[in-house]
Specification:
about 230 residues; alpha/beta; Ribulose 1,5 Bisphosphate Carboxylase/Oxygenase; globular; Rossmann fold
């Protein structure tokens, strides 16, 4: 494809760019017709098999994700009204257990109150492979339903290292301004940097790559980020 070839020619694959340079390059590439997701890939020097090195957390992206999130709140009583009033797409308990059991998983995030987890846990074989099972570490098991719904709908994301020691995360859309992309990128990187395991002896951040859905990877110099 001519577009892809031209984009590759714009980038020095051996260079680590500053965050500003990388975003400028990303936005100057020849684009496709749809609003691509901007992806960040971070190669870590951790061993995910070690409990304290299995990096996982949540962060609120200041500029949001640019993606419309479909959210189900598993709650009962007044929690149903609270969840819906706060922006949840669906809220309830038994009726949604039945729908999920029947194969319905047309949702991006499920949050639940702690008392709902025993019943929801029985659906682990369905929700687990789709990464939809609520978890306290990801902030999706909570007593504060209204606040959590607003955060998740507003751009709070979960990040986690995979078995290869890599974190993949969407940080916005190609239609975002440079400032919004930079803010989201810096926010996520600082959250990951703060989670460096005390037991890690080697290099923590090995490589940082920024790309769009249909674009080439652009390597970013990790010196672009600090904890200051």
């Amino acid at each position: 494809m001519k577009r892809a070839k031209k984009n590759l020619e714009m980038i020095n694959r051996d260079k680590n760019y500053t965050a500003d340079e990388a975003i400028d390059l990303l936005l100057s590439c020849n684009q496709v017709k749809f609003d691509q997701t901007i992806d960040l890939t971070i190669n870590l020097g951790v061993d995910p098999r070690q409990a304290d090195q299995a990096i996982r957390g949540t962060v609120a992206l200041p500029a949001g994700t640019g993606k419309s999130i479909t959210l189900l709140a598993i709650v009962e009583g007044d929690g149903v009204t609270e969840a819906l009033d706060s922006g949840a797409d669906f809220a309830g308990s038994d009726e949604y257990f039945e729908k999920i059991q029947a194969g319905w998983t047309d949702i991006d995030i499920i949050i639940a109150t702690p008392d709902m987890m025993p019943a929801l846990g029985k659906l682990g074989k369905i929700l687990g492979p789709k990464k939809l099972m609520p978890n306290p570490k990801s902030g999706t098991v909570t007593k504060d339903i209204g606040k959590t719904v607003k955060e998740m709908k507003g751009g709070k994301i979960e990040f986690r290292v995979d078995k290869y020691g890599i974190i993949h995360s969407g940080i916005g859309k190609i239609s975002f301004s440079k400032e919004k992309i930079h803010t989201n990128l810096t926010t996520l990187m600082r959250a990951i940097l703060k989670m460096k395991p005390a037991s890690l002896k080697g290099i923590y951040i090995k490589k940082i790559t920024l790309s769009s859905s249909m674009g080439p990877g652009i390597k970013i110099d990790k010196a672009s980020f600090s904890l200051n």
